[in-house]
Every structure is written in C-alpha cells, then in structure tokens.
Design a protein that fits this description.
The complex is a heterotrimer. Chain A is built from 11 helices and 14 strands. Chain A has helices at about 15-25, 35-40, 80, 85-90, 90-100, 105-110, 110-115, 125-130, 225-230, 240-250, 260-284; strands spanning about 5-10, 30, 50-55, 65, 70-75, 135-140, 145-150, 155, 160, 165-175, 180-185, 195-205, 205-215, 220-225. The longest helix of chain A has 22 residues, at about 260-285. Chain A is globular and about 60 Å long. Chain C is of the alpha+beta class. Chain C is globular and about 85 Å long. Classes of the chains: A alpha+beta, B alpha+beta, C alpha+beta. The interface between A and C is medium-sized, with 23 and 29 residues.
Chain lengths: ~280, ~160, ~800
C-alpha cells in the first residue's frame, strides 16, 4: 500500500522532463495520470527512484483538428476526450471507446498518452489507435520522431519507445466512417475479456476500407489486416463477417486468466468482433 | 526521500503541509489535515471510498501523491455543507436511506456532487454509470440512486424557483 | 386539560415499532464524521505491519530482522520466538482449534503472518517489512480437501494425530472433525426403498465477506494504571475482551474493548486475528499505543473466508412428488486452522437446517471438516451459521428433484412446504421452527410475478432459440428459504463458553429522555435508530429522546455481539424486556402520583391513565421526573432496568424470491430483468431499514452467485486477492429489487420480531443460481456449480451443445 521512497520532479516543459530522464536513466519514469503507475508502485511492483510529473507541461495538452488531421496531446485525459465536441464530430469512435474505459474517477485522471505508452495489453487505446492508423510522436534527446501505432508494440510492456523518450502527441486523420468499439468485461472498471475497434467506409453499397483491431487478446494490440481485407468489396453480409472473424481469430493469441480459458476467449472474441463489424456497418 | 512543502486549498482554506513525495494524498488529508471523511478500502484504486474533488474533477485520492496536488483546490465531504446547513445531497441520503455503515458515504456523496455538476438532470442509468467508480457493500445502490435523483430534482426545482 | 394532540399523533410522534424513522447515524456519516478504527490517532502511537508468507506450505528456516531493525524509526520486529514466553505465539480459535499468531516453524497458507514490524509510521513500517529476510523451505501444497484426506503430507504437525480433536475423534492427520445429525440408517432405508431418488453433488465455492473497511485495531497499554484499551473492528467486543484477558493474563476489569463505527462486518469481523494480538503485545512491550490496519489484499488472503463446502445430496420422493427422505454429506474445507465462528457444539453451524422449508420426515447430515493450505476459517458471511450452505443445498436439491420428476419446481415446493398448522414444527434434524405460513407467501410471490405467464414466455423463448431466431435464453430462478437466526438458547449455544444471551440496560433521565446500552454492535444495520424504536413503543418515550449505545465494554452490558442476524431476536428481546421492567416501575410511580392502586392504571402510548377515567393521567415525562424527585414508599429512586435475555429458541424468518434472467449463450453474459423478494421477518420494526437490508443482502447474493470467489491454484497461490479479480459489483451491475412482505410473528419473541439482515443473502444466492440453472434446464442442465461468471455460463452452454 505504501510505495518506496522517490524523488519528485515537476518540469514545466518537455526539455526539462527529458533532461531528468537523461540524468537518471533507468531510475526515472514519467507519470501522466498515474492510474497505472501508482497502483504498481503501491504494490512495489514498479520501483521508480525518480518520478517526473508531466502535468505542468502545456505542450502536452490540447486537442486540435485542422485540415482533417486530429492532434491530441499525450496528457489529454479520457474525460477531456469524451467531452470534446469537435472530436466527437471528427472521430466519434474515441468517445465510444473512452466511455468504456475504467470508471468516472479514473477517466478524470487517466490520459491517452499513459494509456498508449506503457504497453499494457489490457489498455483500450492502443488497439483503437492502431485501428485509426495513428502516429505517435516521440521526443528524445536526439530529437523528435514519429512511429506508427501499428508498429509501436513489441510485447507486453515493451514498445518502440526508448527509455529516454517521451510520447508527446498522437495524430491521425479524421475519417468519416462507420465505427464501433465493442468491449466485453466482467464489470465496469475491468479490462476487456475481449474488445474490438472497427472502422468501415463505404463506396456505394460496398465496403471500401475496413480496419479491425483487437484488445487484450494477445500480449500486444492486434490490427488484423486479413480481417479488414475479408470485408473490403463486400456488402458486409453474413459470409463476409464470418470470413473476417475467422481471419481475425487467426491473428490473436489470448491467454488464460481469471476471466476464463483460451477456448472461451476465442469464442467471445469472435462474437465481439462480429458485433463490432455489424454495428460499424450500420453506421457507415 | 526529502520532505517538501505542499500548498493546497482544502475545503476553502489555504493549507501548507510537509510531506515526502511518496505520501499519498488520502493519508495527507486524513492524517496531516485531520480530514478523516474520505476512507481507504483497497490499494488497487477500485473501491472509490477515497474519492475527493480536485479542481473540478472527481479523483481517487489514494491514487495521487500529495505533491501532485500542489496548488490545487480540493473539496472533501467535510467541505460540502455544515451541520447547520447540510448539502442537499446529505439531506437526501438521510431521507432516502442511502447509507448503512457509512464507510463508502463520504466518497459517494463527494462523487455525486461532481456528477450533478456534470449532469444536473441525470436519468437513473446516468446515475448508476456515474457512480460506478464507488463500491458500496451495504445498500445495494438502489437507495443511493434514489437519494441522488431526489437531490437532483430538489436542486433543479430550487433553480427554477430562483428564476 | 384537553389533549390537543390526537392519540394517533402521539403514536406517530413516538416513532416506535413500524415507523420508517430516519436514521440517527446518518448525521455523522453523511458529514464525514464517522469514527472508525483507522481514524484513531493517539499520542505516541506506533504502526504495526506484517511480513507475510508468499508460500502456501513451507518450513521457516530462519528469520533475520537485523536490516529491518537498523532502519531508523523501527521500534521492534516480533516473531513467534518473542511471543512464545507469553504463550501467545498460538491462540485458540472460536472453533476449538488453535491458530498460529506468528509463524512457528512453518507456514500453512499464502499470506500467513510471519513477523510483526512496529515502527514510527506506516511508511517506515512498510519499508521495514521489505527488509526482513525470511528463509523458507517449500513443502508440498494441498488445496483439495479430498486429496488432503488421502495425503501422507501432514499439515498440522502441532496436533497429535491419535488424540481427538475439539469435536471428537479425527480420522486422518488432515481431518478435523466428523459431525452427524439425524438417522443415517433410517434415511438410507427410506431412500433405497423410494419411488424416485435424485442425487447430486454440488460445490459452494469459497468466498469472502470483504466489508469495505478492512480489519484493524489500536491497542493502548496504560502501564501507569495497568489498563489495556483495545479499539478494533470487533463484531463481538465483549467476547474479544474475555479472550484478550485469557490470552494476556490481564483481568477483564482492566481491559476496555471499544468497537467504534465499523464499516461493514458481514461476519469478517467476528474472530480474533493475529493483528489484534500483535498490536496488544506490541503495546504492552513498548508502553505506547500501537495501530494495526490491514490492507485489502491482506484482508482477502488471510482473514476469515466463507463457505468452501462440497455437498452431496440424495433426496427421495413418491411418484407424486412428496419428499420422503434427505441425505446430505459435506466435506468442509477449513483451510489451515479451523477458525470457524460457530457456537461450540456446532462445528458445522446450523447446516442441519438443510431440510429447508419442506416437511421431510427423515433425514441425515454428516459433515467432515478438513485441513488444507488455505486461509483459515470459515465464517458465516451474511448468514446465520452455515445457513447459506444449507439453504443453497436444499434449494438446489428440490430443483434437481423437480427435473427427476419432470415437474414444475414451484409446484414441487408447494406440495412439500411445512403447512401453517404444523408450526411449531419439529424438523427431522432437530430444530423447532417457531412459526411460518409458507403457502401464503409463495402464492403471493408467484402471483406478483405472474409465474404462469413467465413460464409461458420461457417456453416461447425456448422454441425461438431452437428455431435459431435468438441466441439468448430465459431463466426463472426460484428460492423459498427458511433461515434459523437469533443464536441462541444458552443451554446449547455458546461462543467459547459464553452463553449466547444478550442484554440491554436502560436508564431514564429526570427530564424524560433515556439512554440504553446493548451487548450488540451495529456495523451499518442501524441499531441506534431501530432499538430506540422498540423502546419507544415499550416505554412511551419518543425514539428521538432515546440514545442507544453499543460497543464499549466498560459501559455496555455483556453481550455476544452482532452476526447471524441475532441482534433483533436476542438483544431486541432484551430491550423489550428491560423496557417492560421500566414500564412496571413507571406504573407504580404513576399510581402513586395519581393516588390510586397500581392495578387502577394502565399504559396508553406515552402515559399511564386511570382505567375508566383516561382524562386523568401521568405522562412518562412526569413519571421520570417523579422517580428522581419523589420519596415513594417501597420504591427506590431512579428509573433503570437491565435485562439479560436467554432466548427460548432461535427464530425462523423465511422468504420467497423470484429472479427473471436472460442469458446470452455466446458470451455467457447474464442480465437480470426482474428480482422480486418477499420476506417474512415477523414484526417489522422499521420498514425503511428492512428494505435497505434486503437490497444489500441481495446485492451480495448476486455477487457471490455470479462471480465472487476466493480461488487458489495448485501451488496455493491466491488468484483473487485484489478487487481486480474479486468480484464486487458496482451500481451498473446491480438491478433494482422489488420488495414485498408477509408478517408471521415469532410466538416466543417479546415483540414477535425475527431478524432480517441476512435473509436476502441466504435466499438470494440460490435464487440467482437457480435462474441460471433454470435457463439451461430445457437444454438438459441438471446442476452446474457456482460461481456463474461469464466463462462458466459460457461453458455450461458449450457443454450442452448450444454452440454447435
């Protein structure tokens, strides 16, 4: 319940944060909303001798939508995502997904940056960002670079981000698409038993593009190219959905936990994916 | 490891406390400021018994270090109403039996307070979703929901009457 | 003087029996001014924290406290070696066993207490815990009670395998007791001879009461005066005082135990935990107060669990459905120590109520208790002793019998209910049920939910499912429970030798208000509100003018505490009886004041009137003043009474519950569409409070039936030690409950009340479970074990071929 002792840093800009990271290397970590990191520290499962609080850094806040590009500062909270009218118009799937994360208090503090950066397979935003084909902006001592969400996750808690880098922004194109974020969980506040993000655009009465990404069904989020391809050019009939689901299931590798055994998760995943596809299609 | 001064406004009063960075806000409120209203019910940020309001946000104060609250305005249950002038929520929780052992109550009422700022006219579903970060073991929630809806109605009626 | 207030208004103003009086406790709780153990802050207070075993079974080879002691601010690190000279390294349990306070040579469950660090504050204590070095040598782990009874591995090396245990001979070194009730041979003969027999095995999974406030204590030894004060989360403060006295050698008059506000008990806070003992020892050793408060993981991993009963049932009946016999065998998994909180003579509690609400002529119950490498217990979680297990058993057996007979389960129940005219009813397993009218309640419930309509709807839904039109199925869960609460008569109910009476002491003040102190202790049940109501009706002083106090052993009369829904049946009776003593003296005072004979006055709501001339009266206020003001021949001054009540019997609340549920067979997700609960708790003291208890008990029932479990893997690792995995529903998962009632007073209780706090939990669990089971019955389900969480519901569907 009580964390180990640590030094607290509260820089006012990104450069300040980077310099503490550089000085202390492995011993330093940034804290965003703190609702993943602090519980781990309280259980003494994460040791952080130097904690860098990002809350004062203005450059990490804000949602801008310009010329069809959405840019979200990493320190934007789930609550801010949900209540942003412009974002709701531009990319409503974020609103739908964010409401299914955790509970009201956690959403006030939890940030999109925190949710995508630490590589926890249970988090919802990574799969969603992959569905949106978002880009993550990383700033480090050697400068700024952009990494695709679809290339960011290597294994559980292992990402493309180097230790000395901070994820500062998430960008993606707003797209007028049918959308759905479908999530089964044991109760409010739980991670997904299975979750799926789907974006579908239509050309006439056929699917033009389809993006399907799954959460907590592998040690990383899974964007299933094959599942998307199975839908393209179809009118999302039962056969197409079945094919897409089959393809998606090939791409996941769930593990047994208290939510249930693998067999159960595979079955539920199939149901969740098909419901997400059907709902996205109905909105396309 | 070094103690530092943290300045916060708590229930309308300016406070200065001395704390190690690792001191959780809940313990600073309870043990250094004597505000024992918010409670500790778990260590994994699930139960919500520690809920306070910080700068217009409902926050689980067990999942924040006091140092993070530097410069913040914090409201705890002790800041909602006085014995001579109870908050409408406090009155309605009593009227509608929205509590039994009382342990979740400070966090629950504090959360309900912010909920009604977010949405002054919630449906039952809105209320249930809105308090889903606060666990109660005694009431089964039904009378808590009733209390909050009743408080909302009363506040709205008062607003209309004032206009 | 003409009365301006009508008699009806006088009754209303009393806020006595039947009033939905608002609670007096709410003032402090809604303002954040409750006073719980962790709020206590005494000068010089130190904090204690435990080093706990990561292993489920291991020898403790060494404990090195040097690094911990070297940490600035650490005052002491206690191990079993330090407690041994005080004979405190082990302590007696409430079930006649003994339990290690700190690991003595070995550990027997994951999370067991190994060392107790005492430090200046919680931060230093937490750091010091990490610095204590313990060397373990792992031993083979047993988590299956059946394997335990076959295993060569000796768990309790402290027990002589050849000597009897507290409840008789032990069959095996991991066996605890065998307890039998009823006629086994006769029952077997009836069953062997029967037209129809249904057999079933079922597991009532291990769960945990998990009150929102974890357990804790603050011990303060005053060395100057030789007095120990112990604050703590105690559902039975007087018993704790007696135990503390026996353990510490300090006489009871020098020990003060205080239960302040308690944030939920549900049975979790009945027993004595190592943390309490260690805080006492640490305070005695250091001479300053020592606080110990556990965190949630410690609470779930080491404090008293509930249930863990493997039950085998055989029920026989005629072809027409009349039950002729019942056989029940239980394998009871008690974990590492039998720390059950049961009356001494009942190692399996009141499991023998397992004949339920039915007229069963012959029955047998056998229970074998077993040790395993799990947390010790079990405690009765929001039920009377083991009654949840008993009621779940019979309410499942009746459903299984209905399947065997191809009968409607509601009708099968009706055929077999004990009839109203049969009360008081002697059950085949030795209980005298005090009163009941089951048929009326059942008919009322089934009518309220339009049972026939529901069955029609269900049949249509089954057909639609089979036609492939829907993937959800519908279940109708039924439960008719009889509880046995209010333990209990001193002649057969005691806790550690203390008879299970309870008490009330009343003092009326000169200006007409009063204080009453009880031997019970509320943990949210609203005693300060409801017991004043009992008194208000008995003595005619408004409830608003009566303070109810509990929990301080220096002032409260001895009582056995609050659990098992015993407060209203026992302390409530004591309250009424003490009230009647007050009234008897008040009558004499009134007669004196009115200058008539005692028999010429009678009690009327809030006063004594002269019979036949009611315009001449004395109010209770005037009488109270006279008690202090008048020299009345033959009467002592003052107006006080005390009653210690030994109940002649338990009480038997009952109820009829119906749950309508939809299940998505592909995801395993259930949805509760309707829950109707009819409760009969006899006389209803405060309908608002009763309704709150029903909501709460049903919610905990939903949690237990649909996922709340304490689970272990094969190595004895607890898989559900945090609220991530230990299922506590939020407001989103819980439906609205419809409550209804009938009133069948208890004939032996002074005000006819039976108690109600736990009924909804006892009756609710089988109702939710039966809803799931009933949904799958048309597809071939007979019995599926709880908990019915998503994946297990899914598996039920899968096993029945519903995914093909």
């Amino acid at each position: 319940m009580i964390t180990a002792a640590f030094e607290y840093h509260r820089p006012s800009d990104i450069a300040g944060a980077l310099s503490v990271l550089e000085e202390h290397g492995d011993d330093a970590r940034v804290i965003a909303g703190g609702h993943s990191l602090i519980p781990m520290m309280k259980l003494r499962m994460a040791e952080v001798p130097h904690l860098i609080d990002l809350q004062d850094i203005a450059d990490l806040k804000g949602i801008t939508i310009e010329g069809g590009m959405v840019t979200i500062g990493a320190m934007t909270t789930q609550h801010e995502l949900i209540n942003n009218e412009a974002l709701l118009s531009a990319t409503p799937i974020i609103h739908e997904a964010a409401l299914q994360i955790a509970d009201p208090q956690v959403r006030y503090m939890g940030t999109i940056g925190g949710n995508v950066a630490n590589g926890d397979p249970g988090n919802d935003m990574p799969g969603l960002m992959q569905c949106l084909d978002a880009n993550f902006t990383l700033e480090g001592p050697d400068g700024t670079r952009s990494v695709k969400a679809r290339e960011f996750y290597e294994a559980a808690y292992m990402t493309e981000r180097e230790d000395g880098e901070i994820l500062t922004q998430i960008t993606f194109s707003a797209v007028d698409a049918g959308y759905a974020y479908e999530k089964q969980k044991r109760k409010i506040g739980d991670y997904a038993t299975a979750a799926c993000a789907v974006l579908i655009t239509k050309d006439g009465d056929k699917i033009a593009t389809a993006s399907i990404a799954m959460t907590n069904l592998s040690d990383v989020p899974v964007l299933s190219e094959a599942a998307g391809e199975a839908l393209v050019g179809t009118s999302c009939d039962a056969a197409a959905i079945t094919a897409a689901v089959a393809a998606a299931l090939e791409d996941i590798d769930p593990t047994e936990d208290n939510r249930g055994p693998v067999e159960f998760k595979m079955h539920v995943a199939g149901i969740i994916i098909s419901r997400a596809i059907a709902r996205a299609w109905s909105r396309a | 490891m070094t103690n530092q001064i943290v300045k916060m406004t708590v229930n309308g009063e300016k406070k200065e406390i001395f704390a190690e960075p690792r001191e959780l806000l809940i313990y600073v409120l309870r043990e250094k400021l004597g505000l024992t209203g918010p409670h500790v019910g778990c260590e994994t940020s699930h139960c919500g018994a520690c809920t306070v309001e910080i700068d217009g946000k409902s926050v689980k104060s067990c999942t924040m270090f006091a140092v993070q609250a530097e410069g913040a305005e914090i409201t705890t249950i002790e800041g909602l109403g006085t014995p001579d002038n109870l908050h409408v929520l406090q009155e309605n929780f009593k009227e509608h039996h929205g509590l039994q052992c009382g342990y979740c109550t400070p966090g629950m009422i504090t959360r309900a307070h912010r909920l009604l700022q977010e949405n002054p006219n919630p449906t039952e579903e809105d209320v249930r979703f809105g308090i889903s970060g606060n666990i109660c073991r005694c009431t089964g929630y039904q009378n808590i929901v009733k209390s909050i809806l009743s408080a909302a109605a009363e506040l709205n009626a008062a607003k209309e009457a004032a206009q | 003087m003409k009365d301006e207030v009508t008699r009806e208004e006088r009754v209303t103003n009393l806020k006595g029996l039947g009033s939905s009086r608002k609670r007096v406790e709410d003032a402090r709780f809604t303002q954040g001014k409750g006073h719980y153990v962790d709020d206590i802050n005494l000068p010089g207070m130190l904090t204690g924290d435990f080093v706990r075993s990561p292993y489920a079974h291991a020898r403790v080879k060494s404990i090195n406290i040097d690094a911990a002691m070297a940490l600035d601010g650490v005052v002491a690190v206690l191990t079993a070696k330090d407690l041994e000279p005080l004979s405190l390294h082990w302590m007696p349990t409430l079930a006649g066993d003994k339990q290690m306070v700190l690991a003595d040579g070995k550990v027997l469950f994951q999370g067991q207490e190994v060392a107790f660090v005492v430090a200046k504050d919680r931060y230093i204590a937490a750091d010091a815990v990490e610095l204590v070095e313990v060397e373990y040598e792992e031993l083979p782990v047993i988590v299956d009670p059946f394997k335990s009874l076959q295993s060569d591995v000796v768990l309790r090396e402290d027990l002589d395998p050849n000597a009897p245990g507290a409840h008789g001979p032990r069959k095996h070194h991991n066996h605890i007791f065998t307890w039998e009730v009823g006629d086994e041979d006769g029952t077997n003969a009836v069953i062997d001879d029967a037209d129809v027999v249904a057999t079933e095995e079922m597991y009532y999974h291990r769960t945990h009461p998990c009150p929102l406030e974890p357990c804790g204590s603050v011990a303060s030894m005053d060395k100057v005066n030789g007095k120990l004060t112990l604050y703590g989360t105690f559902q039975a403060p007087h018993v704790v005082r007696t135990v503390a006295s026996l353990l510490s050698g300090i006489e009871e008059h020098n020990i003060r135990v205080v239960s302040p506000d308690i944030g939920g008990g549900f049975g979790n806070k009945v027993g004595v935990y190592p943390g309490y003992v260690c805080s006492i020892v640490a305070s005695i050793v250091t001479g300053v107060p020592v606080k110990w408060v556990e965190d949630r993981m410690e609470n779930l991993m080491s404090t008293a669990f509930a249930r863990d009963y493997w039950m085998k049932g055989k029920i026989s009946a005629t072809k027409e459905g009349k039950i002729t016999g019942l056989h029940c065998h239980v394998t009871a998994d008690h974990g590492a120590f039998d720390a059950c909180a049961d009356p001494t003579k009942f190692p399996a509690g009141f499991m023998s109520i397992c004949t339920g609400s039915y007229d069963i002529p012959i029955a047998y119950l056998g229970v074998d208790g077993v040790y395993t490498n799990k947390a010790p217990g079990g405690v009765s979680y929001r039920c009377s002793f083991r009654v949840t297990e008993a009621v779940y058993f019979i309410e499942r057996m009746i459903e299984v019998l209905a399947i065997e007979l191809n009968m409607d389960a509601a009708e099968l129940r009706r055929i077999n209910f004990i009839k109203k005219e049969q009360f008081p009813y002697d059950s085949a397993l030795g209980w005298e049920y005090d009163s009941g009218d089951y048929h009326t309640a059942w008919d009322k419930a089934l009518k309220a939910v339009d049972y026939e309509g529901l069955r029609k709807e269900q049949a249509e839904r089954v057909a639609a499912f089979k036609r492939g039109e829907t993937r959800t199925i519908m279940g109708i869960g039924l439960s008719f429970f009889t509880e046995i609460v209010g333990a209990g008569p001193v002649k057969n109910c005691d806790i550690l030798g203390m008879g299970m009476f309870d008490s009330c002491e009343i003092r009326i003040h000169p200006t007409g208000s009063a204080i009453a102190r009880l031997g019970t202790i509320s943990q949210g049940q609203g005693h300060a509100t409801t017991f004043a109501q009992i008194l208000a009706s008995e003595i005619g002083i408004p409830a608003d003018s009566i303070t109810i106090e509990e929990g301080d052993t220096d002032t409260a009369p001895y009582g056995l505490g609050t659990y098992g829904s015993r407060s209203t049946p026992v302390a409530g009776a004591a309250t009424a009886m003490a009230g009647r003593k007050i009234r008897a003296k008040a009558q004499m005072i009134a007669a004196y004041l009115l200058e008539v004979h005692d028999d010429d006055v009678e009690f009327d709501v809030d006063r004594f009137v002269i019979k036949g001339a009611p315009e001449r009266f004395k109010t209770m206020g005037e009488i109270a003043y006279a008690a202090y003001n008048q020299a009345i021949p033959g009467l002592e001054p003052g107006l006080e009474a005390v009653s210690y009540y030994d109940p002649p019997n338990m009480t038997y609340p009952f109820g009829a519950y119906v749950c309508v549920m939809d299940i998505d067979v592909d995801t395993g997700v259930p949805k509760i569409n309707r829950f109707y609960a009819l409760d009969d708790c006899g006389t209803r003291i405060n309908p608002m409070v009763i309704e709150g208890q029903i909501h709460g008990g049903l919610t905990e029932a939903l949690a237990v039936a649909l996922g709340q479990e304490i689970a272990y893997d094969d190595m004895g690792n607890c898989k559900t030690a945090t609220l991530m995995d230990f299922f506590l529903p939020t407001a989103w998962e819980v439906p609205n409950f419809e409550t209804d009632f009938t009133v069948t007073p208890s004939p032996h209780h002074p005000i006819g009340a039976k108690g109600v706090g736990e009924s909804p939990h006892v009756g609710g669990v089988p109702c939710f479970s039966n809803a799931v089971q009933d949904a799958f019955r048309p597809f071939g389900n007979r019995h599926t074990n709880m908990p019915h969480d998503h994946w297990r519901i899914w598996k039920t569907a899968n096993d029945l071929g519903l995914h093909d």
